């Protein structure tokens, strides 16, 4: 019995048998040539039994919805790398596991996005959430986004809003407002003008500090004031 348990534990913690994740780079939306700034997303997906926890189509929807809204501040995103996480990372239950998930993978210059099977609400026992923008507790300058596989299409855009300096808000039109609203269709939600202004300031600060690197600049595309 002990041998069986040890074998199972070793199997779960072993590096995943990686499927070809190139499609998550090659078949997801690219930054538009019409948008001056392009930021990379490094995607990390839990893999179980040789299968990624979410599909290329799901990731494409997340990126497309974010790009549609961030283009207002002259920003687009594109997946530049995708790698596999072990099955032991499928459920993220507490703050320590949020720290442990991102810490070994963090690097500056890109937004790291982790896709897991279940993301617990650390404030309400027994509940789960769709996504979180998480700051490493030992060094809050190290931060990343965690998405649950049940996340809706606007979840990444919401969490990137936090990444760009936004708190939750009460603007009716804002996807940072978590209050259910009958008057707004989900697809119509974006950011309010004061939020866009704040996001521009945080965008410029992250560029200055190297938290994000503009891939459009690397490609030699002309940059326009934003």
Question: Total number of helical segments?
Answer: 7
Low-confidence stretches: 1-12, 219-226
Summarize the helix and strand pattern as letters: HHEEHEEHEEEEHHH
Percent of residues in helices: 25-40%
Query: Sheet with the most strands?
Result: 6 strands, mixed
Shape: globular
What value does the Rg take, in angstroms? 18 Å
Class by alpha and beta content = alpha/beta
Global mean pLDDT: 90
Q: First CA to last CA: what distance?
A: 63 Å
What percent strand?
A: 15-25%
Task: Kindly state the number of beta strands.
Answer: 8
What would a concise description of this structure say?
The protein is α/β, with parallel strands linked by helices and 226 residues long.
